[in-house]
Amino acid sequence: MAAPSPTSGGTSGFLPAERAKCSFNVAALQTMTAVALSTGDQMGKDREIFSGPPFDNEEMKDYHSYEDKFANTLARTGAAVKKLRDPANRKFLMRHMAGKVQMGTMFATGGAASIHFSMFLTFLKTNASKEQNEAWLELAQEARYFGAYAQTELGHGSNLRGLETTATLDKETDEFVIHSPTLTSLKWWPTGMYATTHGVVFAQLVIDGKNLGIHGFMMQFRDVKGHLMPGVEIGEMGPKINGDNTNIGYARFTYVRVPRFNMFAKYQQVAQDGQYTAPPKALSKFRYMSMMSIRMLIVGWSFRDLAKSATITIRYSCVRQQGFKDSTAADPLGDGVGEHCIMDYKMQQYRSFKALSVAYCFFWSAVYVSMFLMRIQSTVASGTEEEKDAAAAELPELHATLSGLKVWSTMWAHTLIEDCRKACGGQGYLRSSGVCNLSTDFAEPATVEGEQVIMSLQLARFLMKSVDDLNEGRPIVGSVEYLKEQPLGKIRMRSWKGETDQLIGLLRDRAARFAKKLSVAFKAATAKGLSFDAAINSVAVLAYKAAECHSAYIFVRNNRLALEENVPDAAVKTALTRLLDLVCLMQIRENSGDWMNALDEEQVDLISERINELLDEIRPDCVGLVDGFGFDDYMLDSTLGRFDGNVYEAIYGKAKQSPLNKTTRMVGWEHLEEIFDHDFLKAGMESQRAGKTAAKL
Ligand SMILES: Cc1cc2nc3c(=O)[nH]c(=O)nc-3n(C[C@H](O)[C@H](O)[C@H](O)COP(=O)(O)OP(=O)(O)OC[C@H]3O[C@@H](n4cnc5c(N)ncnc54)[C@H](O)[C@@H]3O)c2cc1C
User: Fold this and answer.
1) Measured between alpha carbons, how far is residue 107 from residues 77, 187, 569, 634 in Å?
2) Residue 59: its pLDDT value, please?
3) Binding-site residues, ligand 1, Cβ < 6 A
4) Catalytic residue numbers?
5) Which CATH number fits domain 147-279: 3.40.50.300, 2.40.110.10, 3.30.470.20, 1.10.510.10?
């Protein structure tokens, strides 16, 4: 091992030594994760397209002002789009258009491009009529204009039906008049809005004084010189929890007139005489496809950011040494003694392996959901009417599944990312750690696109309906088939080793019991005379829990299925099955009161025992498992998570970049020099000096 020196932390040998202990072929694992993370060989080629300024991470320095950061994201966005148009990068363009690669995985794009290519484009594809797509789609795909997704208002978020913006048909001019009647009707929060030219704006459709509910309208916000269009006021909202997010907007519309053509018309249409054609009942459900697509992406982000955090924490923990192995030794730092690597501490393992195992669990669910959604989307795009009807029938299940996976992947990821940050000790507080900003940045996916309680309540309603279906003899299929099972009785295991199916069975049992418990409680509330909304509210705590239990089961079920179907390499499968067991065991240990029907104290103790054993079994593989995600140093952008383990050089190097470190004279000295005792300082100057050699002992 290298020894520490004035220029080296002496840690360069630590991670290679860890890698030598790994029980499986890391490259085999990387081949699987590369699909979701745009890592691997293909990523290397893609990254070459976006190398150098303005894509370089240095361009996004923490020391830049809010305005500079904003300008840098736009410089990146503009340069990236030019790269996309370069015929040399045609293959990348095709994969990007097919949604197989996201630029955001390679560099921070800024909100305009990310919302355009995700929410806006998907909305266009799923909600525009053929004629509208002819007018708008190709230009949007080529980023010839950018679109925002303007739904939320200052006074109205979760309650979509409460939006106040109006779109009133003017039959004489064949236009809609888009108007923000009150302060609370201002569009508030649309990502990227300050820097988009267009957007889909959601408003109450009003025809002949009759309100026909929320519809989407294509609006242009800026003219050819970047100025606001007449009647449009747009602004940026100012600093958020993530100081790098400089492009979230607000908008006020004052009697803005758009052609009747601009109401999204795939499912519902308005004729010039005001006749309204409602969407066919089954197909109206497809209107929410864009929302579902983004929720699917968010499950992927939960995986990605948690995987990054686990990588940073585990690599750093294998490098960081702290605490004497034998504090009673005469020379605790002497040969054969020394300090522990913090990865050997059990609680460090518990916290970081929890993040690691949950990240892999999210990975498999992200893959599962994306395949599910792609199948539905291709049916919507090119299926027969019968196939479309069948796909529409699957949507309640998909919607419920996605609501739960979005909420619980982001809730757990947010908590675990922050725990990873804390597990890095003081260094985790530094922006250069890479994990510190992941923690604050992840507040966004945890907040947007479906608030956690509202979405959980939606899932809970689906669960209650499924319980009703079961009770009334209607078929129940898909993810809730477990409702048919009887509750588990007392379990008597001698060890939980290798009991993956039994563990998943416990989570399935809990999901079924809580869904049924919820249904009973809800019925009792309505029997007391409460209205539907009041009854739901009265059982909301239980409903939230039932949604969590269902989602926890779906995550591990997907994980189990994927290990069976997608992991041919036996050694990789063994290593990943340990992680799946750990996810289940930790979930059960931390919520053991949920299994009073099945587990007594002795069984819970055995579960804790198995967790302890697993921590030991995972320990030699931990660096291999995080290497398996395939992040390179550029993607991690972390001093602590470097592949080579040279963390101290990196932390020091980053600190040196602070503008305060450019001169030996303290910046701002003039503000303090008058309050200091100059005689005292001068006396010190006379007694203290810099020597040229070490002290003679
Ligand atoms: C970073 C960021 C980016 C965003 N990007 C976009 C965007 O691009 N486009 C866009 O249109 N919007 C966007 N949003 C808005 C976002 O979708 C909303 O903030 C979110 O839907 C929650 O709505 P709200 O803020 O009005 O919260 P509220 O609805 O006011 O909720 C506040 C609290 O009340 C509770 N609550 C509310 N209603 C109920 C109920 N019925 N039952 C039980 N509890 C309830 C909620 O659980 C929550 O705890 C963004 C927001 C953020 C933070």
Assistant:
1) 10, 28, 32, 9
2) 60
3) 115, 149-152, 157-158, 189-191, 248, 444, 447-449, 451, 453-454
4) 449
5) 2.40.110.10
